[in-house]
Amino acid sequence: MIRIDGNLVSPGPGGVYNERMAQGYRVWDPYRSKLSALSMLDPTIDLTADMRVLYLGAANGTTVSHVADYVDVVYAVEFAPRPLRDLLAVSEKRKNIVPIAGDATRPDRYAPFVEMVDLLYQDVAQPDQAGILIKHIPFLKAGGTAILMLKTRSVDIRQTPEAVFAETITRLTDSGLRVVTSCWLEPYHHDHAAIVCGVDPAGMS
């Protein structure tokens, strides 16, 4: 991905959410996007032109629009009607975004519309965040990458963020995923962590 003067940027048309521009590129604000925050904290995170991405929890399309600037296609799943309207408006200007009105806890309902993907990105802030990611592993190519943006306070407000994080790691590894790297998203997002997982060529156990 491209950086200018220490800022992560993307090479698409601006005006999606009044984002700043720098030398003709869109500045990707890490305080508004957890994927941008992860990329700022871990420069090895990358998006490439041949990637197909399944994005769960697309919201109003802010981060989706930046991802679409880099990759081949983004299948963007959102359930709530109001942000879905914004997502539809964003997808009209970026033809490689496929907006899907769907419940991420029921991937069977939109499975016919999604091809196998290289990157599975989960940003649905529900109590069973790990479970939602695991349900979508069948969409991920062998050797692909899954990223879970864990909002610990949405999982269990009674536990510490560290305890929720540890339990989530255990659940993902028990499901057969291989945790490649993980980090907290401070100072950009409080009590949020990113967990990057790999799917081995042999597939899930």
Automatic annotation (TrEMBL):
InterPro entries: Fibrillarin, SAM-dependent_MTases_sf
EC code(s) of this entry: 2.1.1.-
PANTHER family (alphabetical): FIBRILLARIN (PTHR10335:SF17), RRNA 2-O-METHYLTRANSFERASE FIBRILLARIN (PTHR10335)
Family as reported in the entry's similarity comment: Belongs to the methyltransferase superfamily. Fibrillarin family.
Protein known as: Fibrillarin-like rRNA/tRNA 2'-O-methyltransferase
Gene: flpA
Keyword Transferase (UniProt): yes
Function: Involved in pre-rRNA and tRNA processing. Utilizes the methyl donor S-adenosyl-L-methionine to catalyze the site-specific 2'-hydroxyl methylation of ribose moieties in rRNA and tRNA. Site specificity is provided by a guide RNA that base pairs with the substrate. Methylation occurs at a characteristic distance from the sequence involved in base pairing with the guide RNA.
HAMAP family: RNA_methyltransf_FlpA
Biological-process GO terms, alphabetical: box C/D sno(s)RNA 3'-end processing; tRNA processing
Record keywords, A-Z: Methyltransferase, RNA-binding, rRNA processing, Transferase, tRNA processing
Subunit structure as annotated in this protein's UniProt entry: Interacts with nop5. Component of box C/D small ribonucleoprotein (sRNP) particles that contain rpl7ae, FlpA and nop5, plus a guide RNA.
MF terms in GO: histone H2AQ104 methyltransferase activity; RNA binding; rRNA methyltransferase activity
Binding locations of S-adenosyl-L-methionine: T62, T63, E78, F79, D103, A104, D123, V124, A125, Q126
Domain of life: Archaea
